Amino acid sequence: MPETSETASRTPADFWFDPICPWAWMTSRWMLEVEKVRPVEVRWHVMSLSVLNENRLDELPRQYVDLMEAGWGPVRVLIAAEQKHGPEVLGPLYTALGTRFHNRGLPNERATIVDALKEAGLPGELADAADTEVYDERLRASHEEGISLVGQEVGTPVIAVPGADGRQTAFFGPVVTPAPKGEAAARLWDGTLMVASTPGFFELKRTRTEDPKFD
């Protein structure tokens, strides 16, 4: 898609996601709201909780290990789609996958992935990538591009925007539910950037008391 004067004036916000994470899904829906109320353009990238946790599976509960093992499939499919059809397909495919996994509670299985691919206008045979390591090198590279900005102690999502000094300001989160809309989305964006761009600032956190609330 050619760049227009409107898109050229928008601040790029690079967003790394794993489609199986419900909290990243909430943050991604908030970012779509931010695009409506601030001059921001989200650029989607894939990261992987399966990659992040592959060397510490013996420390994790069995249920989470099972989730990590199943998590390879969707991110491999996303990377295959990006490699074959360009990065612009990641946003629509993430929306199609996330709506099925989180809003509709469908299982992480081939039929769900094929259905999501078709909704995103992509060939269903891309689902074959879920069971192969062909795209793992690119998957790991995409994951590293995001996680290296914030460190190994966090997960998904990772967001990065250009800082005032030209360097990227990157952060994990925010973790929020439900996804703010309208002016509330704008306030959270402004505040997050203010905090994240403060030199020496590292953490602001409180215990989660609610599960994700999907629209």
UniProtKB/TrEMBL annotation:
- InterPro entries, per this entry? Rv2466c-like, Thioredoxin-like_sf
Question: A Pfam family for this UniProt protein?
Answer: Rv2466c-like
Under the heading CDD domains, the entry gives: DsbA_family
What residue ranges carry the coiled-coil annotation? Answer: none
Q: Which protein is depicted?
A: Disulfide bond formation protein DsbA
